[in-house]
Amino acid sequence: MFDAKQMEWFDQLSAEDLAILGAGFNTLGDFFDFLALIKARQETTQGNKK
Fold first, then answer.
1. 50 residues of the chain, pLDDT tens digit each
2. Tens digits of per-residue pLDDT, 9-21?
3. How far apart are CA 47 and CA 27, in angstroms?
4. Reduced DSSP (H G I as helix, E B as strand, rest coil) percent helix, strand, coil of the chain, to 5
5. pTM, entire model
């Protein structure tokens, strides 16, 4: 799955580094969920106007 160079990079990460990355991805996912809700609301509002 990983070659030696990638494993070397991965081994340098601490548990705290991985937790920070995980939190960042989680926040990014929540942000895109929020954008999807806004878009769905806009589409519903536009559909009612027609």
1. 678 888 888 889 999 999 999 999 999 999 999 999 999 999 998 887 75
2. 888 999 999 999 9
3. 30
4. 85, 0, 15
5. 0.68
Q: Which two tokens stand for residue 33?
A: 């969920």
Q: How far apart are CA 28 and CA 10, in angstroms?
A: 22
Hey, what amino acid is at 1? M
Q: In the numeric block, which tokens belong to residue 45?
A: 């509002």
Alpha carbon distances (Å) from 2 to 7, 11, 17, 19, 22: 6, 12, 19, 20, 19
How many CA atoms lie less than 13 Å away from 37 in the CB half-sphere?
Answer: 6
- Token readout for 27 is 């926040």
